Amino acid sequence: MADNCAVELRNITKRFGSVVANSGINLQIKRGEVLSLLGENGSGKTTLMNMLAGIYQPDEGEILADGKVVAINSPKDSYALGIGMIHQHYKLVDVFTAAQNIILGINDEKMDIKKTSSKVREICQRYGFDIDPDEKIYNMSVSQKQTVEIVKVLYRGADILILDEPTAVLTPQETEKLFVILRNMRNDGKAIIIITHKLNEVMAISDKVAVLRKGEYIGTVNTCETNPQKLTDMMVGRAVTLNIDRPKYADPKPLLKIEGLTCVDKEGIKKLEDVSFEAMGGEILGIAGIAGSGQKELLECLTGLYPIQSGTIKFDNDGEEVNLVGMAPMQIKNMGVGMAFVPEDRLGMGLVGSMGMTSNMMLRSWKNGKGPLFDKKAPESLARKIWKELEVVTPSTSFPVRRMSGGNIQKVLVGREIASNPKVLLSAYAVRGLDINTSYTIYNLMTEQKMKGVAVVFVGEDLDVLLELSDRILVLCGGKVSGIVDARTTTKEEVGFMMTSIGGKGGEV
Amino acid sequence: MTTLIALVVAAVTFGTVLMFGTLGEILTEKSGNLNLGVEGIMYMGGAFGLGGAFYYEKAVGAAASNGTVALIIAIVAAFAIGALAGLIFSFITVTLRANQNVTGLALTIFGTGVGQFTGEFMRVKEGGYVALSNNLKEVFVKPIFPQALVNIPVVGKLLFSHNIFLYLGLILALVMHFYLTKTRSGLYLRSVGESPSTADTAGINITVYKYLATIIGGGISAIGGMVYITTTAGCVWNHEGLAGVGWLAVALVIFCMWKPLNAVWGSILFGALMIMYLRLYIPGLPTEIYKILPYVVTVIVLVLSSMRNNREKQPPMSLGLNYFREER
């Protein structure tokens, strides 16, 4: 066709109750092109794509495929138009093999797993994938699962691919591999839409960038004519500085000394093995590693939540050295080891979703009340302080935190930990799923704490941020310390290799 | 030896009741619906199954009635009431998205009531006694194989002396096994129970699968209740015998790890545990203690099964959860 426009969205509006998720959005997706969809949290990117995938139906506007108006009422219709979406949370059945997952919902051919498997191998060969179609999903790594998702879509003959935050869980090497594949597919004439928060990836992979802000379409630009700063300004709607300030604290001294820390899980598998390091006051210690390398267990050991098999955790409590091993979580907390842990579902640990800010503040101070009644005044004033100082968007301090947006929930969580004046602040995935603007607020909070002499331990996913924010980076690999590097002099590649092999040697072989 | 054979035969008879209850619930749970109404469904199946055969005989007269027809009517009547219960459950949980546990428990209370009422109503109306005539009873309990086979020492009794329902149950287990592991539709059903959002995005109609599995599953479970009344209870309405059987079936589903073939030996084992106190006297063991054996085993099994870490032996992942596509 003349303009080779695969899909066009015209004036799409979608509401959830009174919330307008998308309003009057226009978008063109062309074949042989990678389009990045950029926007802050809650700007409606996923919602918009779900309408192409048939999960939601637009309230207003029309969708055109190959120039004709179409109605996508179900995922089936979407597949029929050649649209395939790779969701952020993989849509796979764990106990099925890759091939079984791939044939789900395909009715027009005889069920023959062997034939499917060989066809899957063919697709893998063509694009350079590496998966075994007869392998069960629960035995696969995250990036293998993602590959299955992509193959699933290709198997159905999709030529318009939508990827929702595909790199969030990948290592830099895996991301590079994915990009090679995406480029192959683009050159094959497929239309690709990629949703991501990471600006450097946008610059690396896409041909065009479409920006959404608060459900509205801001515009589309050619990637070669823009830069991260301009894109951020478009996204946020005003100029934002993109540099993380990294001042040096004058007098860092060790607050936590961890030696030979080992712990095992219920099945007897070693989650941490002989982990030794020091966390300095006035320093941000970044912790990098592939998801599930022991980050969670490490933080939980430090706060007394996870049973420790051997090793010592020495904490400098105002000049007096205390061993934290064997202490109750409450004791550890009282000594000033605070933890802002943001689990995948944000509300699983740390906050109670149906309660308001005040009640959530009380989770930290419920012991302070006299007799059977609790003291509500202090938490209320703390809640108001956080509300004001961190610019939390909520109608009131009693508004259920579950109904706030992700970024605001995280602000409440981090704000509460900081308010308890910790000496050590542990945080995991503090910016998970947050947009750039909010992320920077959190980074600044961390740096502020560091400059007060607090030892900040920051478990992060985005290597670029770790490199910019931390003073030192500890890399975990399979529960062992792969190395500790100076964040000011190391490179992303070095850390990436250390994530996949102890000491980073494997990468060069 | 004779005692042992008699024990096995009795265990199989009672086990058949559990087998239908369990197979039905396996099918239901494979779709992700946790129907705790099995107890009520089996009660209703018992009352309606017996009622169907009884009123058929009454309508055409004892002399003219045909055993096979009575059998089919009993099965159909039980299946129909169980399917209706499954439909109610599906409507409330799938369409209206109510909590499955609450709905299932309500269905148990409702079904037990309806079953008891129907049974008692028939009994009172018919003058104190609802029973099939002896030659009709015969069809429900007699062995289906020729007497010559039954007479083979040991093997004959163990393999060929059972009533028709055992063999129907075995066929059903095989069919279900084949369906779940070898057919496309079975694969889809399992995907619905494991991860409805995956099935949905793959273009599978979740609502249809959940409704059908729950309706057919309910029907199969209800047949179990009918089998109890027409075999173990001797074609006489008995409002006490079925108490707890449905719950045992729910526990058996876990014991069998949601696999139809395991349900065959699992239900016979539990059948043995249920009737052992009648057949096998153990000196010094009070009957009351003896009778709790199946429940003790159930508790042990539940504890053990919760400790299993094998991913293959887990319940369908979305069991008990409702699916709503636009949920955020």
Characterize this entry briefly:
Chain A is an alpha/beta fold and 509 residues long. Chain A is built from 16 helices and 20 strands.
- The geometry of chain B reads as globular
Strand order of the largest sheet of chain A: 6-7-8-3-9-10
C-alpha Rg of chain B (nearest Å)? 20 Å
Shape, principal axes of CA atoms of chain A:
globular
The overall average pLDDT of chain B, rounded, is: 90
Largest interface: A-B, 27 and 24 residues
Which regions of chain B are unreliable across 5 or more consecutive residues at pLDDT < 50?
Answer: none
Biggest beta sheet summary of chain B: none
Query: How much of the polypeptide of chain A forms β-strand, as a percent range?
Result: 25-35%
Layout of SSEs?
The complex is a heterodimer of chains A (509) and B (328).
Chain A: E1 5-16, E2 19-30, E3 33-38, H1 45-52, E4 60-65, E5 68-70, H2 75-80, E6 83-86, H3 98-103, H4 113-127, H5 142-155, E7 160-164, H6 172-187, E8 191-195, H7 199-205, E9 208-213, E10 216-222, H8 228-236, E11 253-264, E12 270-281, E13 283-288, H9 295-302, E14 310-317, E15 320-323, H10 329-334, E16 337-341, H11 357-365, H12 377-389, H13 406-419, E17 424-428, H14 436-451, E18 455-459, H15 463-469, E19 472-477, E20 480-486, H16 492-500
Chain B: H1 2-30, H2 38-60, H3 67-95, H4 100-125, H5 134-141, H6 147-150, H7 155-160, H8 164-182, H9 184-194, H10 196-201, H11 206-232, H12 245-255, H13 260-279, H14 287-291, H15 293-307
Helix pairs in contact in B: 1-8, 1-11, 1-12, 1-13, 2-3, 2-4, 2-11, 2-12, 3-4, 3-5, 3-11, 8-9, 8-13, 9-11, 12-13, 12-15
